[in-house]
Every structure is written in C-alpha cells, then in structure tokens.
Amino acid sequence: MTDHDQTHDWDVHALSGAYAVDALDDLERARFEAHLAQCAECREEVDSLREAATALGTADLVAPPAAVRDQVLAGIGRIRPLPPQSAGGTRATLRRRTPLLIAVAAAVVLLLGVGVASLQPWDGDDGPQELTAAERILNAADASTVEKSFPDGSSATIVISRSEGKALIRTTDMALAPDGKAYELWLQSPAGEMVPAGLMPDEADTTYVLDGDASEATGVGITVEPDGGSPQPTSDPIALFALDS
Q: Where are the domains of the chain?
C-alpha cells in the first residue's frame, strides 16, 4: 500500500500546490517535506507545478489592475476545503482536485509573484490605456493605404479610416521643405475643394494625423507653402493621393 492510499494523510497530499509556490508556513513546509521524501507521486506533482510556474514567469507580464487582483484573491479566500473522504474515495478526490490545485497555483504565481498577462495595455491601476489617434486609424477595420514614391528615393503613405473620419501621413527619407517654406497638407472634398489639413513636421521620417474630417475626402494633397501655411494652395501639389470612396 502506497502513502497515497492512507486516508489519514489526504490533507498532506493536498499541500503540493501551495508548496510549489512557497505558500506554506514553516510547520506545514516541514510536514510536507517529510512526506515528500517518501511519496513519488507528490514529487512528480510538485515538479509539474514548478515547471508551470517557471513558464508563466518567463512570459511578457504586466501588473493587473487592482480590481482584478482583489476579486481573484477574494474568491480564493472563499474556497472551502473538502472534508476527508472514505478510503475508497480519497484517491479519486485527490486526482479530481489536482487540476484545481494547478489553477490556484498559477493564479497565486501570477497575482502575487509576477503579475497578470493581458492582451490589453494595462497602465498600473488606471485600466487600459487609450489608443492614440494614429493607432486608432491604423487599427481600424476599414483602414486603407495609398503610397507614393518620389524620384529621390523618398516615399509617403496615406492611411485613412472612414469610420474614424481621420487620415494620417507617413514619410520615409523625405527631403525637408526649402528654407522659409513648409509642406502643407490638404483634404480634397467631393466637390474638389482643397481644405487645409495641417503642416507636416519638418522631419524626414514622420507620422502625422491630418486635421479635419476625412470621412468623405476624395484625396490628400501636399503643397509647398510659406512658413505658417496658407488658407488656399499657392502652388501645384507635389503629391496628390487619390482615395478610394
């Protein structure tokens, strides 16, 4: 008869999850380690739990919001241990409890040791961070792009989301505007009117969200204007991006 078949020792077996994440007091730890020396099944269970904890600890993890942490810990605190079973049912009960032990051990490791992994960008206790205007455009389901390359090897890309009502421009290696001049952006209306949409930053590589409502724009233009911009284009566009309707 193995140690796992002794009914009076059922509670010692149940300590494997807590032992794996170092959650026992000194007396419980001493008792369980004495048991562990003669119980191969518990040694295997502890090794398995520690491997799971190690794998969790190597993931990209961030701290959970306080509300999630408090709710999980409160739930764990309300769990009542099962009473001893008869000799015939003890081993089956322990085997049924093993997945729960693994889950609880993982929760303890995540919440108390290394934090909670999440697909949301948590910012401490303040909840998910809001996306920037550029991120909302780029992540929109209806985002579409139009790209132009210039003879000097530079390029510019327009990304527009009709649902967001916004467009942005991305430039790569773009030559800077001449002294005293600036690149001005324009949104072309369905009637063909060019509406000012902001001045591009004086940088070769930039991402800039255009001013104004782009939900019905038919095109985006770039002109060279005096510093400070103009209410209407004063030169032909150096680039005109036709947008899908």
A: 3-114, 133-242
